[in-house]
Write a structure and sequence with these properties.
heterotrimer, A mainly alpha (162), B mainly alpha (503), C alpha/beta (322), A: mainly alpha, 2 domains, flat, C: 322 residues, D-Maltodextrin-Binding Protein, domain 2, 5-stranded mixed beta sheet, 11 helices, 42% helix, 18% strand, globular
C-alpha cells in the first residue's frame, strides 16, 4: 500500500496538462456557470427599471462573466507554460475527512468524530504508521474536547449513543 | 466635551484596574480565538456576552472591543503561517504574508503585522476621537445610491488585488457577485438557485467561502508540497525583526492603510474585508515595490493589517452613534449595551460620554497590550511551523470543521465547505485567484440590495446615482480610476511590445 | 473596587470551568438544557434566551446554554428542535417567523407548527407602530391615507415576510391604500435610510424608537396593539381610529412534540416564576415587551389561531415572490 502510494506520487511528478484545451477547462467551467445563472435569472424574471426583478442581477452578472470567460478561454488556449500537477490523492483524502466529520459529528459525538476525521485526513501520508495516525487522532480529539467543550463551552456533545 | 479633556477623562476610565483587566481578558481571548480558523470574533463575543450582564457598561464594552480587534489581529497569524485566514478579512494578508513565511521570513511578517495592526489601531482611534460626530453625520447622509457608488469603487479596486492576469481577476470578482445571489432574494422573497435546499435560503456564509477556497484548497496543495520538504524552511532567528529599510518601507503603507480602513470601517456593512482589499489595491498602484506584491512584499502585509485594524475601531462609530451594526459582531455590541438599558444612537455621545471616551482610550491600551502580548509570542508561532506537517494538516482540517460547524451548528455547512474547498483547489490548478472572488462575494449582495432599493425609492429614475452629490462624485472617481488603469495597462503593453521590437 | 475585581475574577473563573450544579426544585433535567434561538446572537430574542438561561442556572440550578441556529426565517431552528428527543433538554425560543408566518409563506415545511411541537410558555409581545417623516407634515392617519392616495408613499420593513411587512400589508388592506414596500434587513438600516431622508415611512417596534421620537426625528402616528402603550400614551391605536389592525410581535418557549405533561408543567411554572422577578420585568419593560400569562394549552391555541388570522395577509403580501 505504502509503495503504491509513493509510486503514484512519483509518477505524476513531471506531469503537465497534456493539451491546451485542458488548460482552458477552467474558463469553460466559468462559461457554463454563467450560462446557468443567465438562464435561471431569465426564468425568475428581470422586472422593470422601477422594480428590478429577482433575476435581474444574476442575468447582468451572468452576461458579464460569460463575456469574461470567453476572453479567459482565448487566453488560456495560447498559454503554453507548465501547469501545476494535480494531487488527486490528497484531494480525495481531505474531501473524505470533511465528509466523515459531517456524517459522524451529530451521530456519535465530538470525540469519536474528530478521531475518525484526523485518521481519514492522514491516510495519504505514508510517513505516519497506522498506530501513529490513530494516536494523532486521539490526541487531537482529546484536545478538541478540552478546548471546545471544556473551555469555549460550545454546544457540542462529546459522546453520543454510547 | 473638548476632545483632549474627553480623551484624558477616558484614559482615567480605561486605566481603572478592572477595566484594564477586562481589556486584557478581551484582547487575549480575541487573539486566541482569532487564530483558530473560522471561529471569529462573533463566537468569542457571544461566549462572553452573559458575563457582561454583571459588568458596568464601560467594562463590558471595553472587553468586547478587545475581543473584536484582538481577533482581527489573531486572524492574521493563521493567514501568514498557514495561508488560512483566521477571519475572512485577513484573507488579503495571506496574499503576501504566506509567501513571506515560505521564504523563512515568517517572523518578520508576524512582526510587521503586529506593528501595522498597532499603527492602524492608533489611526482608527484618532479618527474616532476627532471625527466620530462628523463621520456619523456623513454616514447618515448615505442612502442607497451612495452605498452603491462606494461598493462600485470597492469592486474596481478589488479586481486589482489579483496577481495573475487582470482578466481572470475581474472574472473572479464578477463570479463572486454572481454566487452572492444564491439564496432568498431579500427584495421579493423568491428563492434563487437554492435547488430547494432550505439551508441555502440565506445564501452561502462568507466564512464557508473563505474557509473552502483558502483553507481547504490550500491544505490539498500543501500536503504534497510539504511531504517533499518544501515547507520546513530553516528559520533564521536573526532575521526576526524587520531591518531598518523594511521599517521605512512599511511606514507609508501603514498610514495609507489606516486612513482607508478608518473610512470604510465607519460605513456600516462594508467593514474590514473591503477596507483591507481596497487598501491593498491602492497600495499596489502607488507602491514603488509594486512588482513584488503577491510574492512576499512586506508592504503587502502591512497595508491590509493596518486597514482592517483601523476599520475595526471605526466600526464602532455607526454602531454607537447610529445604532446600525455593520456586522454580526457589532450587533452583539448593541445587545450588550441594550442589557444595560443604553440605546445606541445620536444621544450616546452626550448622555454616555464616559462610555464613549473610555472606549476610545481603551483602544490605546488594548493595542499596546496586544503588542506586548504578541511580540514575545512570535517566536512560538514561528516554531509552530517546525511541527512536521503530517501532524499539522489533519489538526487544521479538524479546526476548520469545528469552526464551520459552530457557525450555525449545522452539518450542511461542512458539505458546502467541501464543495468550495474542491472548487478552490481546481481554481488553483487553473490559476484563478480566490481573493477577488471573495471580495465580489462579500459586496455582491449589498450591491444588488442597494441598487434595487435606490431604483425603488427613486421610482425608477436611474439618474439619481449622478444627481445626488456624494454618489455622483464617487461614481466619477470610479470611472477615472477605471480609465486610468486601462490606459496604464495599454501603455505597459505598448512599452513591452516596443522593447521586444528593439531586441 | 477590590471586591468588584474579585467578582470579575470569580465570574471569569466560573465561565471557564463549567460548573457542575445540582438540580433544585424547579429544575427539570440533570443534563444542560439548550435553548435554541432562531436569530444570530445580539438581538432582543437572543438576549431574552440568555436572561432565561442565566436565571435558570442561578436560581434553580438548571444548567442552560443558548444555541443560535439562525436561517431561513427561523425554520432551520424549528426543524432542528422538532427532530430532537422530547426530554426537555432542547427547547426553542419561538416567535412569529417559524410558527405563524412560515406555514403560509413556504410551500412545504419539514415540520408542522402545531403537531411537531409542545408549546410550553408564552413569554410576551411587543408593539409595532407606523412611523412617518416629521418633515412631511403628516400627523394623523387620515393625512397619511390622503398622501398615499395622492402621490404614493414608500414604507420600509425589516424584511420580506417579516412581521413589519405583514403589518404593512394589513394596514394597506384595512385603509384601502397601496403603498410602495421597500424591504430592509432588520429595522436599523431602514431607520438609517429614513433619517437620510430617502424613505418616507416605516414600521418598527415602538420601544426601540424611544430616543428618536423624543428627539423629534421620527413621528409615530398609530399603534398596532389592542390598547395604547404606557410609553407614549398620546399615540392612538389603529383599532380606536376605526381600522382593525392588530399585529403583535410575540415570543414563547416550546419543545419537541410528545413531552411529558408533568415536565411541561414544571418548565411552565419555572419560566413563569422567572418572568415575575422584578429585574426581569424591568428589563423586558425597557424593550417594550408585555408579558401575558398563558397555559400551555392556551399558548398552543394562540399559535393555531394566529396562523389562520394571518394567512390571508401573508398571501396578499406575496412573500415568496410568485
Amino acid at each position: 500500500m505504502k509503495d503504491f502510494l509513493l509510486r503514484l506520487r512519483r509518477s505524476d511528478d513531471t506531469a503537465r496538462l497534456p493539451h491546451a484545451w485542458l488548460g482552458a477547462l477552467g474558463g469553460i467551467a466559468l462559461l457554463a456557470l454563467s450560462l446557468i445563472f443567465v438562464i435561471g435569472g431569465l426564468r425568475l424574471g428581470v422586472g422593470s427599471p422601477r422594480r428590478l426583478g429577482t433575476g435581474a442581477f444574476p442575468v447582468l452578472t451572468g452576461f458579464a462573466l460569460g463575456a469574461l470567460s470567453v476572453a479567459v478561454i482565448a487566453m488560456d488556449l495560447r498559454d503554453t507554460s507548465d501547469a501545476e500537477r494535480p494531487d488527486w490523492i490528497s484531494f480525495a483524502a481531505i474531501g473524505a475527512a470533511l465528509a466523515v466529520f459531517a456524517v459522524t459529528v451529530e451521530r456519535v459525538g465530538l470525540v469519536p468524530s474528530v478521531l475518525l476525521t484526523v485518521f481519514t485526513a492522514s491516510l495519504p501520508d505514508p510517513s505516519l504508521r497506522l498506530t501513529g495516525k490513530l494516536l494523532l487522532g486521539l490526541v487531537v480529539a482529546l484536545g478538541c474536547w478540552g478546548l471546545f467543550i471544556g473551555i469555549l463551552d460550545l454546544p457540542f456533545r462529546a459522546f453520543k449513543g454510547f | 466635551m473638548d476632545i483632549l479633556t474627553g480623551f484624558g477623562h477616558g484614559l482615567m476610565v480605561a486605566m481603572q484596574p478592572e477595566n484594564l483587566l477586562y481589556c486584557f481578558i478581551g484582547v487575549f481571548l480575541g487573539t486566541f480565538i482569532g487564530v483558530l480558523p473560522g471561529i471569529g470574533s462573533m463566537a468569542a463575543i457571544s461566549m462572553i456576552l452573559p458575563l457582561t450582564f454583571y459588568l458596568e457598561p464601560t467594562s463590558a464594552l471595553v472587553m468586547i472591543a478587545g475581543v473584536y480587534y484582538g481577533a482581527e489581529y489573531g486572524g492574521s497569524i493563521a493567514s501568514i503561517l498557514m495561508n488560512i485566514p483566521g477571519t475572512p478579512s485577513s484573507s488579503i494578508t495571506c496574499i503576501d504574508g504566506y509567501p513571506m513565511a515560505r521564504e523563512g521570513r515568517a517572523g518578520i511578517a508576524l512582526f510587521t503585522s503586529a506593528i501595522a495592526s498597532f499603527g492602524g489601531g492608533m489611526i482608527g482611534m484618532v479618527v474616532m476621537a476627532v471625527l466620530a460626530p462628523g463621520l456619523a453625520a456623513l454616514a447618515l447622509n448615505f442612502g442607497p445610491t451612495e452605498y452603491f457608488a462606494v461598493i462600485l469603487l470597492g469592486l474596481v479596486a478589488a479586481s486589482a488585488v489579483s496577481n495573475g492576469s487582470p482578466i481572470k481577476g475581474i472574472a473572479m470578482v464578477v463570479a463572486g457577485l454572481m454566487l452572492g445571489t444564491i439564496g432568498v432574494d431579500i427584495t421579493t422573497g423568491a428563492e434563487r438557485f437554492t435547488m430547494g435546499v432550505p439551508e441555502l435560503r440565506d445564501g452561502v456564509s462568507l466564512v464557508i467561502v473563505a474557509m473552502g477556497l483558502f483553507g481547504v484548497g490550500e491544505l490539498i496543495v500543501s500536503i504534497r508540497a510539504n511531504a517533499s520538504g518544501a515547507h520546513q524552511t530553516d528559520i533564521d532567528y536573526k532575521k526576526f525583526y524587520p531591518s531598518r529599510a523594511e521599517c521605512k518601507a512599511i511606514f507609508g503603507p501603514i498610514l495609507r492603510g489606516g486612513a482607508i480602513g478608518s473610512f470604510f470601517g465607519a460605513l456600516p456593512g462594508t467593514g474590514q474585508t473591503v477596507a483591507s482589499a481596497v487598501a491593498y489595491a491602492v497600495e499596489k498602484k502607488v507602491s514603488r515595490n509594486r512588482d513584488m506584491f503577491g510574492k512576499g512584499a512586506i508592504e503587502g502585509v502591512a497595508v491590509p493589517e493596518s486597514a482592517n485594524n483601523s476599520a475595526t475601531q471605526t466600526a464602532f462609530i455607526p454602531t454607537l452613534t447610529l445604532g446600525v451594526p455593520g456586522s454580526a459582531s457589532m450587533a452583539l455590541v448593541i445587545g450588550a449595551l441594550m442589557i444595560h438599558g443604553i440605546v445606541p444612537g445620536p444621544r450616546l455621545l452626550v448622555d454616555h460620554a464616559d462610555l464613549f471616551w473610555g472606549l476610545v482610550a481603551s483602544f490605546l491600551i488594548g493595542n499596546l497590550l496586544l503588542l506586548v502580548l504578541n511580540i514575545p509570542l512570535i517566536g512560538l508561532w514561528v516554531r509552530l511551523l517546525q511541527i512536521p506537517y503530517r501532524y499539522m494538516y489533519p489538526t487544521i482540517i479538524v479546526l476548520i470543521c469545528m469552526g464551520i460547524y459552530s457557525l450555525n451548528n449545522n452539518v450542511f455547512d461542512i458539505w458546502l465547505t467541501l464543495i468550495f474547498g474542491y472548487a478552490g483547489y481546481l481554481m488553483r490548478l487553473f490559476r484563478f485567484e480566490p481573493a477577488p472572488l471573495l471580495i465580489g462575494f462579500v459586496l455582491g449582495p449589498m450591491m444588488e440590495e442597494q441598487l434595487r432599493r435606490a431604483m425603488l425609492l427613486s421610482r425608477g429614475d436611474a439618474t439619481v446615482f449622478l444627481t445626488r452629490p456624494i454618489s455622483g462624485t464617487l461614481i466619477i472617481v470610479t470611472i477615472l480610476l477605471l480609465v486610468y488603469s486601462i490606459v496604464s495597462a495599454l501603455r505597459a503593453k505598448a512599452r513591452s511590445r516596443a522593447a521586444l521590437r528593439v531586441s | 473596587m477590590k471586591s468588584r475585581l474579585l467578582t470579575a475574577l470569580t465570574l471569569s473563573a466560573s465561565l471557564l470551568a463549567s460548573t457542575a450544579a445540582y438540580a433544585d426544585a424547579g429544575a427539570w433535567s440533570d443534563a444542560p438544557v439548550r435553548i435554541v434561538v432562531t436569530f444570530p446572537p445580539g438581538g432582543t430574542s437572543d438576549l431574552i434566551a440568555r436572561i432565561l438561561a442565566q436565571y435558570l442556572e442561578s436560581e434553580y440550578g438548571q444548567r442552560a446554554v443558548v444555541d443560535n441556529r439562525p436561517g431561513a426565517g427561523g425554520t432551520v431552528a424549528a426543524d432542528y428542535v422538532a427532530q430532537q428527543a422530547p426530554d426537555g433538554t432542547t427547547l426553542i425560543l419561538g416567535n412569529n417567523a417559524p410558527f405563524t408566518i412560515a406555514p403560509t409563506q413556504f410551500e412545504s415545511l419539514p415540520y408542522d407548527p402545531l403537531t411537531s411541537f409542545t408549546h410550553i410558555a408564552y413569554l410576551g409581545a411587543s408593539t409595532p407602530a407606523l412611523f412617518v417623516q416629521p418633515s412631511m407634515g403628516i400627523t394623523t392617519l387620515d393625512q397619511f391615507i390622503e398622501r398615499a392616495n395622492a402621490e404614493g408613499i414608500t414604507y420600509g420593513s425589516s424584511g420580506v415576510g417579516s412581521i413589519t411587512h405583514i403589518l404593512g400589508q394589513a394596514v394597506d388592506q384595512a385603509l384601502g391604500i397601496e403603498t410602495i414596500h421597500v424591504p430592509y434587513q432588520g429595522s436599523a438600516p431602514a431607520i438609517q435610510d429614513f433619517r437620510a431622508g430617502v424613505l418616507e415611512s416605516y414600521y418598527d417596534m415602538l420601544a426601540q424608537n424611544r430616543d428618536l421620537i423624543t428627539e423629534g426625528e421620527t413621528l409615530p402616528i398609530a399603534l398596532a396593539s389592542p390598547t395604547r402603550s404606557p410609553l407614549f400614551p398620546e399615540i392612538p391605536t389603529f383599532r380606536e381610529l376605526g381600522y382593525d389592525v392588530v399585529v403583535e410581535n410575540w415570543t414563547g418557549l416550546s419543545g419537541p412534540a410528545g413531552m411529558d405533561p408533568a415536565m411541561v408543567e414544571t418548565i411552565h411554572d419555572t419560566i413563569e416564576e422567572i418572568m415575575g422577578m422584578q429585574p426581569v420585568i424591568d428589563q423586558l419593560a425597557q424593550w417594550g415587551i408585555t408579558h401575558t400569562v398563558m397555559t400551555s394549552d392556551e399558548f398552543t391555541g394562540f399559535v393555531g389561531t394566529t396562523i389562520e388570522v394571518w394567512r390571508p395577509l401573508i398571501e396578499a403580501a406575496n412573500v415568496n415572490g410568485n
